Amino acid sequence: MAENTAEVLTGAAVLAAALGFLVYAGQGSGLAPTSGSYELKASFRSVEGISVGTDVRLAGVKVGTVTSLSLNPQTFFADATILVQDGIVLPDDSAILISSEGLLGGSFVELQPGGSFENFGPGDEIEDTQGAISVVNLLSKFVANGSGGDAGTEQ
């Protein structure tokens, strides 16, 4: 009987630890509901490289997450909704763009504050957007420009 009790207690401890890890992982990934935040919207030409749960950063510091992405059938742009922490007050001429952590790194959403005296409120739309820049397209343009013309000709 004591052996069964020890097994049950060990199993309960393992399940409790697993549940704790799941809760912790959900909060760290941005998938858990965030209290103390407000919603902003933006429309991008391309959201390549980001998804729901992607970090939203201001000056390199995480201040929110992407909560939804959808295609707008009228404009053919990608509509994004982000949650920003309360206390982060953004001027209404701020910009939002999709940035890369490096050539091989992931992408994130970056907020660049403006200088207006008016601020965004919950549910407002950020008009100044810059979508994802395709590294493959940039490299192909660079190669195309480098292979033609007078570059590399001897004088």
From TrEMBL:
InterPro entries: ABC_MlaD, Mce/MlaD, MlaD_Phospholipid_Transporter. Residues 37-114 form the Mce/MlaD domain. It comes from the Bacteria. Signal peptide: none annotated. It holds the Pfam family MlaD. This is Outer membrane lipid asymmetry maintenance protein MlaD. It comes from Albidovulum marisflavi. The gene is mlaD.
